Amino acid sequence: MVNDINYVSNYCFIGENPPTSLYVHVPFCIRKCDYCDFISFPYNSKDAVRFVAGLRREIELINAGCEKSLSISTVFMGGGTPSCLSLELILEIIKLIKNNFSLSDNAEFTVEANPGTIDREKLDLLYRAGVNRLSIGAQAFDSQTLNILGRIHTSEQTIDAIRAARAAGFDNINLDLIFGVPGQSPAAWRRCLEQAIQLQTEHIAAYGLQVEERTRLKRRLDRGELLPCAEEDQIQMYEDTAALLEHAGLRKYEISNYARPGRECRHNLVYWHNGEYIGMGPAAHSRIKNRRFANTENINLYLSKLEAGVLPVAWEETVTPENDAFETIFLGLRLAAGLNLEWFKARFGYSLDERYPGVVRRLIEQGFLEEAEGCLRLTRRGVNVSNMVMSEFVPPTSY
Description:
Layout: H1 4-9, E1 21-26, E2 28-29, E3 41-42, H2 45-64, E4 71-79, H3 87-100, E5 102-113, H4 120-128, E6 133-139, H5 143-149, H6 155-168, E7 173-179, H7 186-198, E8 203-208, H8 216-222, H9 231-247, E9 251-254, E10 257-259, H10 266-272, E11 277-280, E12 285-288, E13 291-295, H11 299-307, E14 313-318, H12 321-332, E15 339-340, H13 341-348, H14 352-355, H15 359-365, E16 369-372, E17 375-378, H16 380-384, H17 386-391
Parallel strand pairs: 1-4, 1-11, 2-3, 4-5, 5-6, 6-7, 7-8
Antiparallel strand pairs: 8-10, 9-10, 12-13, 13-14, 15-17, 16-17
Helix pairs in contact: 2-3, 2-11, 4-6, 7-9
């Protein structure tokens, strides 16, 4: 049983640095995509109004346990599809955040949007309300791949959305893309990347498809209706991604993320540096000091608890020092710059070699890791077997 009083007090540290990042999960979509296993529900206006009311109550309960407003440097409204909400509800959420938290002067404020659910009017008002980063879920630029993924937009709508965002004033736009889709060839993926490059966005997140259980795509693959993308093709697509995007001026700074200088996603960097963050909305996770906790995934339970004045926490756990170190290594090795060894030692009080004697040297000799400029990072060979490399740092079960 979660102690709600302790849960609230976990947010607030008198005389210490408070959490710096806020994630708001908007759990609605026009239609769930065939590959998606994120927590989302079919959009309807009545549930959306109840959700925003619940969000308001969640903020009130959090702030009730704090002596002063929490200081926030990055905000990310994700989902689901935040842009499927009415303009009025989106603006209400933004107002709730700005009125109840202390946003830094240069706060990064991201809203996820899907093509076909945004227009010039909505983008104009989002920009005026203080949203300064847009993340557009394009995923692909050819109809075959979009159809297999179960997307409901067209390539033309993606292009129109970016043009409208530019006209509204946005100068920090991310495009989400997916490779390794059944039926997708390396040539088709290169054409997708070339189209994305032509749009000159500041950031591109290019993820390899993960086929998740309980998705329509998994069922179609299991029935043999689709054939999985060959592993060698996926490797080629990953290598082509780095080559084409870096040639276009988008530097890889994380395994799947590329940005123009200074346009790295500051919110996601908090995660990749194993920092602290607050999550609000159904299924949202939080990490504060050595506590990790998450809201219930059930939207009706989420709302009913809040309506009863109870925070909707489903579970919580203590992050042990050993697991904290492993997660910091795991996340740090995802970064192109790698894990800063001095920073790691300052954070944990011991060096990587002291904690894992001989492991780093062996992985360097095997060609999976390299040390440069005080950082430990994956080599090109190591990236292809990154899970194996990272497993070498899993803490013993005796801890």
